[in-house]
Write a structure and sequence with these properties.
This protein is an alpha/beta fold and about 130 residues long. The protein is built from 4 helices and 6 strands, in the order E-E-E-E-H-E-H-E-H-H. The radius of gyration is 14 Å and the shape is globular. About 30% of the residues are buried.
């Protein structure tokens, strides 16, 4: 039997798009490739630097998220947590798609999307100098 915890950055049932500012994680208990349980865990005062440790304490092995910067990516790797960035849409659907191997992601997820215009710059093929290319 294979068991692990999957976390998704979330707000109002949708994948939250800025890892370091996520208000909560939706945690899924995965048993033999199927969702066995789900709960929401508020992040409270945990900010950018503490979130990887917070997830590790919760026993999370895999994180699904929207945008995530290089520093946070390194902290997750150091904590032994796999992550998939660039995820959008419904939290439960995203977890199900991940388990089925059908999760679609945005390849520009490594960029810190500080503004709407910044994201549009990417979609137009612009040059925003963020290093996310």
């Amino acid at each position: 039997m294979t068991e692990f915890k999957l976390a998704v950055t979330s707000e109002n049932g949708q994948v939250f798009q800025h890892f370091g500012k996520t208000p909560e994680f939706t945690l899924f208990e995965i048993v033999d490739g199927r969702i066995n349980g789900m709960k929401k865990v508020p992040t409270g005062e945990h900010g950018h630097g503490a979130l990887a440790g917070f997830l590790k304490e919760l026993g999370v092995k895999v994180l699904l998220c929207g945008g995530i910067g290089p520093g946070a990516q390194e902290m997750l790797k150091d904590a032994g947590i796999e992550f998939v960035g660039g995820v959008q849409g419904d939290v439960i659907q995203s977890a199900g798609d991940y388990l089925k191997g059908e999760l679609k992601t945005d390849p520009q997820f490594t960029c810190d999307h500080h503004s709407h215009e910044h994201g549009e710059e990417h979609s137009r093929g612009g040059n925003c100098h963020c290093g996310g290319h």
